[in-house]
Each structure stands twice: as structure tokens, then as C-alpha cells.
Amino acid sequence: VAYAMKNCDENVRKRSTSGGIFSLLAEYVLDRGGIIWGAAYESDFSVRHIVASDRKELPLLQGAKYVQSVIGTSFQEVKRELQKGRIVLFSGTPCQCAGLKSFLGKAYENLITVDMVCHGVPSPKVWQAYIDYRSQKENAGKRPVKINMRSKASGWSHYGYSTEFDYGNSKISRIQNSRDLFMKAFVGNICLRSSCSDCIAKGVDRCTDFTLGDYWGIWNQHPEFDDNKGTSVVFVHSKKGMEILNQVRENTVCL
């Protein structure tokens, strides 16, 4: 089942890549004493899966991060919490979610899995080289303090790559996605893992409860629903997923 959805909280939607639906699912879990695993930036802008147990930590998990994340010991930690009976939400790429299910070896009713409409994952080495290139080009080699790969400053449908430098003189640089070298390499499949071209985890049939993504083309199919601030497409794959969605739907605008 597929939906077009927007979070009613405009501040959350502004921080989110698309419509802010992941935050609603995460809040649902946290409000029930659960715990979240998702991808976050490290201090050097590498990406690693971390755990969040408080709403204040959710912004770390929001926003697109177009690079492969380090799983580390997340699978073992998820299993430990599940065995305690705690509700766990794990979000990641389709292959990461499939990997977790394979690692666990059995189904857990208290596990909620969320993957994404995945284009593939770029090389972390290419990503770090690009940050260095941008830093040298724009800030004498000093790295940024903040990166937003999906800035909505120019609108959701014309998003840009935004870097913020703050070394005594705050400076924000934005490049439209169509002109950004890293995004051109990403969309053009130049810097993706070769395995992404033969992925068995993505497609119509998923092992997850939810698949989230941008509802590109909403302006053609349902122009009255599009405000250029972000709309999520939400695919629900399980009975558990539908039960959860029905409980959070009152906080959304849904089509």
C-alpha cells in the first residue's frame, strides 16, 4: 500500500529530506519506551549507525546522507535490546535491513524496520575526498561545521548541497544539486558500489515494514497536494506497519 504523506509539524518537515514521516515513526517508538538505530554524521562527516533513545537526538538521524554508513556493532546491540523485550526501530538501506534480519535469524514482533527508496551507496573514500575538495575551494582547506546534502532553501524540488563554515566568520555555501559534482557523480552512478547494480534487497518486495522516499512527480499527479516543502511516499509492507501508520496518521496530511 502506498501513500503520499506530510508531517503536520512544519519545523520537523523543514529539517527532513522529504515529508518528515520517519520522525513520526521514531517518536511513536520512543513514546513507548523504545529505541532507534539510524545513520548519523561523525565529526569528520563519515556516516555511522548510532542509537537514539530521546527525542532530542532525532535530528541527528534526519536528513539524507549519500554515503555508506558503518554498521559497527549495531546488529548485536539491536538483538540484545530485542531479547529484553524492548521495542526497536532500525532504519537503513534495504541491504542493511535485510542484513539485520538475516543476522537475527528469526522474527521479532518488537522490531520495526524502515528502509528507503535507494539509488545506491557511494564510496566513503570519494565522499571524504569531495569534502576536502570543497573545503580547499571555498575555505582555504578548513572543513565545514555542517553539511546538508538536501537543503530546501530553494525549495524541495530544487534542493541544493549546502555547506556551513564557521571559523570566526560564518559562511554558508549552496550549490544546486544539478551543478554539484558529488551529486552528479551519485545520480550518474559513477561512485556507487558495484554491488548496488545487482541488489536483491531493493525492488517491490521488501523484508521491511516501511519504505520511505521522496514523492517525485507529485506536482504532476496531485498538484493540489504539493507545496514544494517536501512530500514523502510511504510504502507499507506489513500488517504491523499498517497498524503503526494508523496510529500516527492523525499527525499527517495524507493522500
Task: Produce a short descriptive summary.
The protein has 255 residues and is of the alpha/beta class. The chain has eight helices and eleven strands.
Overview of the structural elements:
It is a single chain. With 255 residues, the protein is α/β, with parallel strands linked by helices. Helices cover 29% and strands 24% of the residues. The strands form 2 sheets. The chain has an 8-stranded mixed sheet, with helices on both faces. The mean pLDDT is 94.
Major sheet: order of its strands?
A: 3-2-4-5-9-10-1-11
Through-space gap between termini: 12 Å
Query: How many DSSP-defined strands?
Result: 11
Spatial extent as radius of gyration: 18 Å
- Structure annotation, total helices: 8
Write the layout of secondary structure elements.
Layout: E1 2-7, H1 10-15, H2 21-30, E2 35-41, E3 47-52, H3 74-83, E4 88-91, H4 94-104, E5 111-116, H5 124-139, E6 146-151, E7 160-165, E8 171-176, H6 181-187, E9 210-214, H7 218-221, E10 232-236, H8 239-248, E11 252-254
Parallel strand pairs: 2-4, 4-5, 5-9
Antiparallel strand pairs: 1-10, 1-11, 2-3, 6-7, 7-8, 9-10
Pick out its properties.
single chain, 255 residues
